[in-house]
Amino acid sequence: MLAPLAALIDAVRGRDATARFYFVGDYVNRGSESRQVIDLLLSLTGAKFVRGNHDDVFDQVLHGKAYLGGATEQQRLAAFGWFMQHGLGATFRSYGADALELEQMLRRPTAGALQRLIDLVPENHRRFIRELPAVIEAPDLFVAHAKWDPHSPSDSIAARAGSSERMRYTVLWGRFTLAEIERKKRWRHRGFFGHTPVFNYAVKDDENGQLPIVRDDIVLLDTAAALGPAGRLTAVCAETSEYLQVDRGGVVIAGDRGSP
After folding, report:
1. What is the torsion angle, in degrees rounded to the nearest 10, for the CA atoms of residue 182, residue 257, residue 190 and residue 239?
2. What confidence tens digit (pLDDT) does each residue in 129-157 have?
3. Which of 50, 36, 49, 27 is nearest to 3 (CA)?
4. Residue burial 2-24, b: 16+ Cβ < 10 Å; e: rest
5. For 182-196, what is each residue's pLDDT tens digit?
6. How far apart are CA 219 and CA 198, in angstroms?
7. How far is CA 179 from the centre of its chain?
8. Partners of 213 in the beta sheet?
9. DSSP state of 184
10. How close are the terminal C-alpha atoms of the chain, in Å?
11. What is the DSSP string of 33-70?
């Protein structure tokens, strides 16, 4: 969704021209402008990105390998068929794929037909997806797409997250419970996450699920920009806990300190 992304970046830069950007994943599938979104992300100097579960499935489709996913051709074709239900068709159409070709591929998936679709994706975009890390670790924070166990320390997360299939699944696909959000974590660093729309959590003062959950140890950023007309795209300042939001049309609609 290019308009809200571009508008939010401009709004942040309007507050702080030297802002450093960290992104929590899912750059493809949910909107019709995946190619344009990645073009914009690649133009940002010094920005850092983690992979989301949608990016990981796209990686599996593009390369036959991913952070979490099988490497056989059959598994690759199965991933294609599965995520055609979750926006992958829109992603390939943003690269110029024909709707009829996608429909035929879905009915009769073959490696050759899939390769023709993959060839539409520029090499620098494929490399961007392939090189996305699962975790970003900094001295004062860490970023992962979905979840990190509140019982687990926040040191060397990238190495430990990759040590088992269960932990890789948690980082990309896991979902916090409200009790986990509210409990004291073992983390020394503040964690920033996307993946689960905040309307899944019954948080006081935000009945509509449109505000980020901003706490001393955890920040949940997914305010459902891609899921409905009331959705928003959100950025939170790691230093001050202030946030900025834009609506789906790219209009700045909120800026505050977040919830306690």
Report:
1. -160
2. 999 999 999 999 999 999 999 999 888 89
3. 36
4. bbbbebbbebeeeeeeeeebbbb
5. 999 999 999 999 999
6. 10
7. 23
8. 220
9. P
10. 29
11. -HHHHHHHHHTSTT-EE---HHHHHHHHHHHS--SSS-
